[in-house]
Write a structure and sequence with these properties.
Chain lengths: ~270, ~425
């Protein structure tokens, strides 16, 4: 792997998408999407339900194949045929549904597909690395030898994030990573995202939580109905973001906000 | 001072105060009771079943527990056990193979035609039969992967096709007898392991448990992890060695332990290692638990599925050779009747779930003992095969019900 020997300078592009489209039968889930991720930056992907965020993530993870467009990774055109290939190249993903095997324990899930010594599994070494990784994430997992089925939603989320970090990826994609987390864990995940960014990796963050997005994102890419709908920065006002996401300044969210303002005005 | 600092820093895996860590013998017992309560029955149904069967059949006919009858039982168990071993692999993925009976029948027919009729050397014949099994597995895997044909249907079609092939190659005579003095038939009917070897094999698992635990504990301590106490391992080893030692002693009162059964147990040990200690085995469990998650982890799900069908059909073919050796003939009846269901029932009774993701190679061994004990006991009672089929069918139904109930209980107790 020649790619892994390259050291990336901050700001150097890792991933560039151009004209990505994805059709599901008659439905156009993605249409002419452009996206660039540079080393050492957090790109937030926001949009309403059905905007195509998860589809885009799955295209990048090798789960779906795009119907059109090109993916450039470290300056070379690539095709991500399988999830295995994406992982190998250094694109790690934390899926919204986590994609964990409930019948296996935490260690097995962390190392799934990348076990230490395939012909004679080194359980001790894997367990030590599992604990170290989980402690770095300040995770509260009672035992790494319990099946995933016995863990809570937040614990599963942490396991999924830990797993994505295991292979030291160049880019990590997080699909709604904080949705199931408590206050402390959310802060930990945000810290973690910054730590990953500071190590010179690219992060793609998908979230509905504008507070989280504005806290860590360097750029905010808005998708709407499968198309790009502008790129913003963390300084952009909440209202501006919302109107980009919903597609108009006149919508249910802004009407609600306006109504509230009126009420406040009435009282005063 | 160093002592203090050691006790203050918890081991890597002992940092969470909310978890009860069972230690020592009492802890092991408590852990086991918890496990059973939550629906993780392990070997319990098999042990209860064997006990029940022994009591019922020996009270109806005392010959049942006679050493030589048990030796016969082990001879009979090897062939079906080998088939059940393959079934474990496909069940782990949540798939099924209904063609195993026909595959074993075809294998025994091939053995007769190639070895007896055409004079092909025995080792070459066995290799050819195993390769045929592997090829059939590749076909099933291909149908499953490329056409997403449910394995239930694909192997049902395979059942008929292979049965037709078996009848075709046997020709109009329909049956080929094998020479009684040949090594294959002697292996299937006469050859017994020497007593000293049987005793060594009986003590081996206990010794392995003790030494294995010692080594793991050393590694874990060196890595800063907690280690399990030796008392549990020693107790396990003593109980296991005593039980196996007694079993061998009892069988030695008759003819002894058949080589054929020894060969079957050897293959069980190998498959167990492959399932528990290799990446392939881990991938099997992952695909059985959540195929999509396994795929996204970079596992080649199609290849794993293919491998499971190949292993299953190959073991079924070898089981057919064993059956031919046992019966000293290859006939049109080989592999028909209850062979299919006996093999699947053995795997399920032994604790491999029909729903995928749970099971072990040992379930083939344990389950086949139960199934064969029932079949042997019913034969001793001179019951017709009609009754035998009905009773075996009922036992399979009970095993699946236990599996379903245990699964429901595990789900509500947060275990997979």
């Amino acid at each position: 792997m020649t790619q892994e020997n390259k050291t990336l300078k901050a700001g150097e592009p890792i991933l560039r998408l151009e004209g990505i489209g994805k059709q599901f039968g008659a439905v156009t889930a993605l249409d002419d999407i452009a996206l660039e991720v540079r080393a050492g930056e957090v790109v937030a992907l926001v949009g309403d339900n059905g905007a195509g965020k998860s589809t885009l993530v799955k295209v990048l993870a090798g789960v779906f194949q795009p119907t059109s467009g090109t993916i450039e990774y470290l300056g070379e055109k690539v095709s991500l045929e399988t999830p295995g290939k994406a992982l190998e190249m250094g694109i790690a993903t934390v899926f919204q549904d986590l994609a964990l095997c409930e019948n296996l324990d935490v260690v097995s899930n962390l190392f799934l597909g990348h076990e230490v010594s395939p012909w004679r599994l080194d359980e001790v070494q894997m367990e030590v690395r599992a604990w170290t990784l989980l402690q770095e994430l300040a995770a509260r997992i009672p035992s790494v030898r319990e099946p995933i089925a016995s863990l809570s939603g937040g614990q599963r989320q942490t396991v999924a994030i830990a797993r994505s970090l295991l292979l030291d990826p160049k880019i990590i994609m997080l699909d709604e990573p904080t949705a199931a987390l408590g206050v402390a864990q959310t802060a930990e995940v945000l810290n973690l995202i910054e730590r990953v960014r500071d190590r010179g990796h690219g992060v793609i963050l998908i979230s509905h939580n504008m507070e989280d997005v504005r806290a860590v994102a360097d750029r905010i890419v808005v998708l709407r109905l499968g198309k790009n709908n502008g790129t913003y920065t963390a300084d952009t006002s909440h209202q501006e973001l919302v109107s980009a996401i919903t597609g108009a300044s006149e919508n249910s969210v802004s009407r609600r906000a306006a109504k509230k303002l009126e009420e406040v005005g009435d009282i005063q | 001072m160093t002592q203090d600092s050691n006790t203050n820093i918890p081991q890597l895996d002992r940092a969470d105060a909310r978890v009860r860590h069972d230690t020592g013998l009492a802890g092991a017992v408590r852990g086991f009771i918890d496990q059973v309560r939550s629906g993780d029955l392990g070997m319990l149904p098999v042990l209860v079943g064997l006990l029940l069967i022994s009591v019922v059949f020996s009270s109806l006919n005392p010959v049942f527990l006679a050493p030589n009858n048990l030796v016969n039982l082990l001879f009979d168990a090897a062939a079906v056990g080998l088939i059940a071993l393959g079934v474990v692999c496909v069940l782990l993925l949540g798939e099924i193979d209904l063609s195993i009976g026909s595959m074993s029948g075809l294998a025994s027919a091939m053995t007769g035609v190639l070895w007896v009729n055409a004079g092909v050397p025995l080792p070459v014949t066995i290799i050819a039969v195993a390769l045929t099994g592997a090829f059939v597995g590749v076909v099933f895997g291909f149908l499953r992967n490329q056409f997403e044909m449910p394995s239930f249907v694909a192997t049902l079609a395979g059942l008929l096709t292979l049965l037709g092939l078996q009848l075709y190659i046997l020709g109009p005579t329909g049956s080929i007898n094998m020479p009684f003095t040949s090594p294959l038939v002697r292996f299937g009917q006469i050859l017994i392991m020497p007593a000293w070897l049987s005793y060594i094999v009986a003590i081996l698992p206990g010794a392995l448990i003790v030494f294995g635990t010692l080594r793991t504990n050393q590694q874990r301590l060196a890595a800063g992890l907690s280690s399990s106490g030796m008392s549990v391992a020693i107790a396990k080893a003593v109980i296991l060695s005593a039980a196996l030692g007694f079993a061998v002693f009892y069988l030695e009162q008759g003819r002894g332990v058949p080589w054929m059964f020894g060969a079957f147990v050897f293959l069980v040990v190998i498959l167990d290692y492959a399932l528990v200690r290799t990446q392939w085995g881990r991938s099997m469990f992952a695909v059985g638990g959540n195929a999509e998650a396994a795929r996204r982890s970079g596992i080649n799900v199609n290849r794993i599925r293919m491998s499971a069908f190949v292993v299953c059909s190959t073991f079924a073919a070898l089981g057919g050779v064993f059956a031919a050796a046992r019966l000293a003939s290859a006939s049109q009846q080989a592999g028909t009747g209850d062979v299919n269901l006996n093999a699947i029932a053995a795997a399920v009774i032994g604790g491999t779930s029909l729903f995928g993701g749970r099971g072990s190679a040992w379930s083939a061994l344990l389950g086949v003992l139960v199934i064969m004990a029932i079949s042997n006991g019913l034969t001793l009672l001179n019951l017709s095969s009609s009754l035998r089929y009905m009773i075996t069918g009922a036992v399979l139904a009970i095993a699946v019900i236990v599996d379903s109930l245990a699964r429901r209980s595990r789900a509500s107790n947060g275990r997979a």
